[in-house]
Amino acid sequence: MIKASSGLGVKKLPILVLLLGLAGITPLFAIDIIFKPPVFTGNDDFGEYVVNQFNQRVDEVFTDLRKDIMDEIGGIDDNPQKLIGAFGTSSVFASSGATQRSYEGYDKFAVTLGSMIGFQLPSSPFSIANELRDFTTNLDEAGDMRLGVNPQALNAQIGINTSKFLLKNLYLGLKFGFMNLNFSGNSFGDVSFKTMSVGVMGNYQIFTHKSLGLGLLRWRGLSVGTGFIYQRTNLSYGFSLDPIEERISVPGYFSDDVKEALVLEDDDDIPGYVLTGFTVNVEATPRLSMDLSVNTYTIPLQAVTSVRLLSFLNLSFGLGADIGFGSAGLHATGNAEVDITGQPDSVSVDKPAEFSIVMGGDNSPAIFNPKIMAGIGFSLGPVIIDIPVTYYPMNEGYSVGITIGVAF
User: Can you list the positions of beta strands (E) in 168-259?
Assistant: First the structure.
C-alpha cells in the first residue's frame, strides 16, 4: 500500500488541510468534488509490466483520501438555506441608506448622503464577535445558521416637498447608490466589491410641526411613507495559498505475476528499483475564490415621528415593516494544479491528477420584516446629521448607519 513518506497519515495530508480550510471560510451548500489520481503509462517493456500495479496503488491513496475528506465535511448541511437567505435578508435591512425619515417637514428640498449596514444574527448583537470567531465550529455543529451581513457604503437621496405643485405635505424622493472597489496583487488576494441601488420614496406628513415648551422643544409631526428600492451587491474574493509538497513512497514489491514476467534470461536486466522501491513527489499550487451575489427588491412601510430639543438635537422613533423579494447566491471554488515527479523513467504521466471543489447555493430573503426604528441626530442651520438604528424583532436583524446632508 502506498503511504505518505512523512508518516503524517492520510488525514493530515496538506491537501486535506487545504480543503477543510476552504470548508471553514465558505459555507457549504451543494458540493461537487473532483478528486482524480494521475494515470500513468508504460514507456518500455518493464513499464508496461508494472504500470497497472503502479496505477492501482496511486488510485488507492487518492480513494482513501477522498473518503476521509467526505467523512470530515459530511456533518455540515449541504443546503443551509438559513445561511444563504440571511445574506439576502441583510440586504433588505441595509436598503434605507441616506435616510430622511427623521427630518420630514422641510420647506423645499433635502439632499442626503449616507451609508448603512444590515445584518441578521442567530442570537444577540452583543455576541456578534463570538459568532464570527466560532463560525466554523457553530456551522459544523448546527449544520446551518442564520447569519448574514450586507454593507451599503455610499447612498444618496434627493427629496422634494410637492406641496406647491402636487399635493400638500407630500414628499417624494429619488434614492441611488454605487460603489466599485477592486484590490489585486496584494497580500490579501484579489478583492472586488460592487454595490448598486436605485429607488423611489414617498412620505406623507399627517401631522405637521408644532412648537412646544417655549421653543426649546419642537415636535416634527407624524409621517407615513413607502417606496420601492432595488439593490445589488457583488463580492468576489480570490487568493493563492503556499504550494503544497508531499511524497508518496512506493515499496519495492510487485505481484507474483509481474515477478514471473520480469524473470528474463539474464537477472541483471531487472532494474534495481524493483527491489528498493522509489518515491513520487507531489506538488500542488492551490487557489481559492468566493463569489457572493445578492439582488433584492424592498418595499418599506413606515410611520415615523421625531422631536427636536434645544434647536439642534433630534430624536426619532418609528414603526413599520420591510417587504423583501429577490435572491442571494454564494458560490465558492477551489482548485490546485498538481505536478507529480520522481517516478521511474519506465513510466510517465498519461493523465494528470485533478483536484477541484465547487460549492454553492441560492435562496430568497425573508418576505415580511417588521421593524422598530430609532435615531439620534443633530442639526445646525440647514445641515443635518442622523444616526438611524433599526431592529427587526421577528427576524433577529439590525441595521445601523450614518447620514449627513442639507434641508431647506
Answer: 170-186, 189-207, 210-212, 217-240, 244-250
